[in-house]
Design goal:
Length: 179
Amino acid sequence: MSGNSGIEIEFPSYVLEYDRTQLRKSLQIAGREVAATARRNIRNSVGGGRLYYGPGGSIGYRGGGSPGAYHASAPGQAPVSVTGTLARSIKSKLRRGRVTDVETIRDAAFYAKFLEAGAKGGGPGKRNQRARGKTYVSGPRELKPRKFLSSALAQCAPDIRRRLADAAIQGVVMERLKK
């Protein structure tokens, strides 16, 4: 008996292949789920932040055409839906590549990144305020983040992990080589 106690098995006529169709379907479902969760969080947000009175800005901004008070969201909460533009702008799309597939979730509203990441600055210019009789001193404006996409992803993460793991296992196929 030799010192080698291992068993060697060869499968020359079979090869492991990976079929990405199940993974692509699972990625699309996951993207739609995260987008739907983000839209639902925005539409269900009641707002616990600053109270604004009357219409603000133009007709499409902050419900400019509607009278009455408006409660903004507090930092850390999902943004409040007044006109529905932000919620309607959230879409998911699968981008296929030769080697990788990526599911992207986009929010087309121009202010969506400001809400997600926060922002500093803005407001009126500071020149000649003393000459115009304005004696108050105001600090710079700051918008604290209202994370609606990342919180939706965090809510859906356990289900997405399970779904993608199952799809990856189902995608492995043993195929017979043609001779």
